[in-house]
Design brief:
- Helices cover 37% and strands 18% of the residues.
- By secondary structure, the chain is α/β, with parallel strands linked by helices.
- An 8-stranded parallel β-barrel has the order 3-4-5-6-7-8-9-10, surrounded by 6 helices. Strands 11-12-13-14-15 form a 5-stranded mixed beta sheet.
- The radius of gyration is 20 Å and the shape is globular.
Length: 386
Amino acid sequence: MPLNARRKPTRAVRVGRTQIGGGAPIAVQSMAATRTQDVGATVRQVRLIHAAGADVIRIAVDSRKDVEALAEVRAQTRDLGANLSVDLQENYRLAALVAPLVDKVRYNPGHLHHHEREKSVRDKVAFLADVAVKHDIALRVGVNCGSVDPAKAAKFGHDDVGAMVESALEHAQMLDDLGFHRFVVSLKDSDWRKVVEGNRRFSSQRPDVPLHLGVTEAGMPPDGIIKTRIAFEQLIAEGTGDTIRVSLTLPFDDKGQEITVGRALLDDIANGRFRSVPANFGEGLNIISCPSCSRVENEAFIELARDVKEMSEYASKYRVTIAVMGCRVNGPGETDDADIGLWCGPLGVNLKRGEATVGHFSYDSVLGQVRTLLDDVIASKGLTPA
């Protein structure tokens, strides 16, 4: 049976020249890993990802200078006819400046409380919807387990999937109530199990809303591909999912692999080529690393993630989670749940054990500190191989 024949009948959402949902082929996306203000590098990245066959290419915008750079990137890539999306961080009002330059804006409900705290979330969502209508663009409600808004986190406690699903449902309803229906929802986490559970729960209540699937911070190949494959095989085979992004920690020039891997996964699922997974997959050492984006302040982060993976191979059978994050925006929060966390700044690396900071170390010296900390975590927890 063709893959599209099993798809849930979601509403159609147009993103530039691409349709998401409504029975259209599953769209494949990626995100520029370069600093947006480095226009030359970002233009090269957009061209590379487009050449790999991307349906949508996302670029991060955090400031007005990023908006100015985005305008130049758009101008220099207009010949491609690429569908561009913007990833807004904390300043939701930048949507009004970027909307004329892109085809879609992604906002994170968990970040809306940072600016203009006296305004209600609904008023901020109304602003985003109004901007989207005015400039004929789509929206993505991008919810992450690691960054739900404080009220949801407090309400659900350790049930972060519940918090994520309620946030997504709440924002979908807000947009519907505003009469805005041109939106896609994503529910992401670095744990593929939470991705599967969250998307199943949301889809069971809102089967009409197109879903953007992805395992965020999946890590380096091949583990990052395997984690993503497991989630996609389960969800897409059930008819859930209208667009995908494979998030891999890769050198900037290899970012097109996210597209080729994504298309290969879709082809395998469509043709019934499912991969068996050992019953104990994911029970030993788990290394989480972000796929990098314009917020990465030092490209040495990518090599460090690889070094951590290689160094820690001796502990592969122990149930320990190490998170290597590339920026100060998501790094502190996303490493809180890991046994050992590294979030990388421009000149050094902040090393954590759980939520506690161990210290700040240079890129050249931190690996030895991680090894010592890893041995201590294994010993103090009395861990035995999985």
